[in-house]
Amino acid sequence: MVLQHVWGLFVNPKREWVSIRDDECTIGKCYAFHVLILAAIPAISGFIGTTQFGWQIGVGDPVKLTTQSAGLIAVLYYFAMLVGVFSLGWMIHWMGETYGAAVPLSKCVVLAAYTATPLFIIGLMELYPVLWVNLIVGIPALAYTVYLLYTGVPIMMGISEDRGFLFSSAVLAVGLVAFVALLAATALLWGMGLEPQFTQ
Fold first, then answer.
1. Which tens digit of pLDDT belongs to each residue from 104-114?
2. 39-42 long-range CB contacts below 8 Å, 24 or more apart?
3. Where are the beta strands (DSSP E) in 59-188?
4. pLDDT reported for residue 51
């Protein structure tokens, strides 16, 4: 089962990247046994957290979303992650030739999928959406995701560590731009009347 690599990415990431590379995983298999499962963690956790517990701003009562609103957001969130993984993999594939790494699209998507693993798992924190707790746990998870990217690119793409560093930096920049674009799209959708609905 492809999920077996998750533990290895936290225990010995360099060795696990070699194992992932040698698996020759297809895009379909990667999605079926890794992305579709792990991407559901933050979507489901966010749905439960925002409808059952809510979040507190100052000393007021917790703010909760309606079930219908939270459900729609969770579904959109889930699909955004699925599209995001593939899009980042496609960008890695597209940029590969610049860095002397002509590898199949499937390997690039697998790289993007496994790099995102800590962010998927940390989605459990959304069960109880307390901002300071999420920041304390989320920032190290984000840092480890960046570490996985920088260790995984040279191994998965078959290039030197020097080129891998430059390639990883370019991928990170693309990821940040995509994140900002997603925030802008969210703001536009909210402005068009698709904002979250809160319970009374």
1. 999 999 999 99
2. 39/78, 39/81, 39/82, 39/85, 39/120, 40/78, 41/120, 41/121, 41/123, 41/124, 42/77, 42/81, 42/119, 42/120, 42/122, 42/123, 42/124, 42/126
3. none
4. 92
Please state, as a whole number, how many other Cβ atoms lie within 10 Å of the Cβ of residue 135.
10
Encoding tokens for residue 43?
């979507």
Identify residue 174 by its one-letter amino acid code.
V
Place of tokens 């696990």: 16
Which pLDDT tens digit goes with each residue over 149-194? 999 999 999 999 999 999 999 999 999 998 888 888 877 877 776 6
Which among 195, 188, 172 has a CA at the least distance from the CA of 116?
A: 172
Sole residue written with tokens 């993999």: 89
**Coil, strand, or helix at residue 59?**
coil
Q: Which of 64, 70, 72, 106 is nearest to 89 (CA)?
A: 106
Whether residue 89 has pLDDT greater than 90: yes
* pTM of the model as a whole: 0.91
Tokens linked to 106: 């499937």
